[in-house]
Structures are given as structure tokens and as C-alpha cells.
Design brief:
With 196 residues, this protein is an alpha+beta fold. Helices cover 26% and strands 32% of the residues. The chain is built from 5 helices and 10 strands. Helix 2 packs across helix 3. The N and C termini lie far apart (38 Å).
């Protein structure tokens, strides 16, 4: 369980708690045991159980594996634990999720909405941060990366692309990808995600 800084008592992060509950619901909807989900996702039963009980904050890599199994993007999954998205989303209302393990911060600039196939995400990786995904959440997912500040190395289908501020890369994702902060400073980029 997570500990509160001041009081030293167990405290659940509200987003992690809602996310854990949604992950448990998705598994239950399919009638899968933790063992079956572990076999399908390649994630251990104990890690899955701890994530569903919000005892751990899931990493981006873990969520990506689960999104692949459940056939949704990470933004779709995260939007399911937030309120119904509005048409106009003020900067202060844009949901932010952080993978503390990898140093990845993800802001849903335009959260997904039923009936729409595209969304915008702002990504930030600290110096030295490196995220590897072994598969796309949805095969054939279209992504456009536009670097706003810093430098980013993106590996797609075993080809590495170096992007500096202002550079863009578009890709259709079928296999493993990797995003790595390529400079001494943090990198900030826009990711447009379009469902096939």
C-alpha cells in the first residue's frame, strides 16, 4: 500500500484505485482468472492482483500489455476511470498520468470520446528516461509524434529515428516500439493517436 508522506498511514491514490477497479471489471467481464490474464498478457498473477487492488501504480509498459489484451488504447482505458469527457477541455482539466518508475508523464490533451477515432497526448520524458512497449495496444494503430522541446529517439520495427525540436514522425504500429529521451534535458512532444 502507498504511504502518506506526513501521516505515515496507508493511502490509496484515487486514480490508481479507480484504474485498479476498472482492470478488475475488464477481467471479470471476460470471465478470466488472474492466471488466464497472466497467460494472455505475460504479466505475473501477483503483479496483476496488486494492480487491481491498487497496491501498486501500474507502469506504462504494464498498462500497454493489458490494453493489448483488452483491445483498447491507453487513453481509452484511462478515460474509462475519468468523468465523461467534454468537448472543450481546459488545460487545468486535462487528465495527467505519471509512470513514476520510468519518468514518463502523459497529459490527455483531447481525451478519447465515443465515436471519435483520434486523440492528442502530450508526453514528457525526463533526461535518460526510456520506455519500451513490446506490442501496440491496438495492432495497426496510427501514431504521429511531434517534438516540441528537447530530443527524442523513437524505435519502430527495429529502426531508430532521432527527432529534434520541430521534427515529426508518423507511423503505423504493428510491433515493439521504444521512446527514449535523447538529450541531457527533458523532452516534450505531442502524440496524435488514431485508431485503425
Amino acid at each position: 500500500m502507498k504511504r502518506g508522506k506526513a501521516e505515515g498511514v496507508a493511502a490509496l491514490d484515487p486514480v490508481d484505485a479507480r484504474l485498479g477497479a476498472r482492470l478488475a471489471e475488464l477481467r471479470a467481464e471476460r470471465g478470466w482468472s488472474l492466471g488466464e490474464l497472466a497467460d494472455r498478457s505475460g504479466v505475473s498473477r501477483s503483479t496483476l492482483s496488486r494492480a487491481e487492488r491498487a497496491e501498486i501504480s501500474p507502469t506504462a509498459s504494464l498498462l500497454n500489455r493489458l490494453c493489448h489484451v483488452y483491445g483498447r488504447t491507453m487513453s481509452q482505458l484511462l478515460s474509462e476511470v475519468e468523468a465523461e469527457p467534454a468537448l472543450l477541455v481546459r488545460a487545468a482539466e486535462q487528465p495527467v498520468w505519471e509512470d513514476r518508475t520510468s519518468g514518463f508523464v502523459r497529459r490527455s490533451v483531447s481525451p478519447p470520446q465515443t465515436g471519435l477515432r483520434a486523440e492528442l497526448v502530450e508526453g514528457r520524458l525526463g533526461a535518460g528516461a526510456d520506455i519500451a512497449y513490446d506490442r501496440p495496444p491496438v495492432p495497426g494503430l496510427e501514431q504521429h509524434v511531434w517534438v516540441l522541446e528537447g530530443a527524442l529517439d523513437v524505435t519502430v520495427q527495429e529502426t531508430e529515428h532521432h527527432l529534434d525540436a520541430g521534427d515529426s514522425l508518423r507511423m503505423r504500429v504493428w510491433g515493439a516500439t521504444r521512446f527514449r529521451c535523447a538529450g541531457p534535458e527533458a523532452v516534450r512532444y505531442v502524440l496524435a493517436v488514431v485508431l485503425p
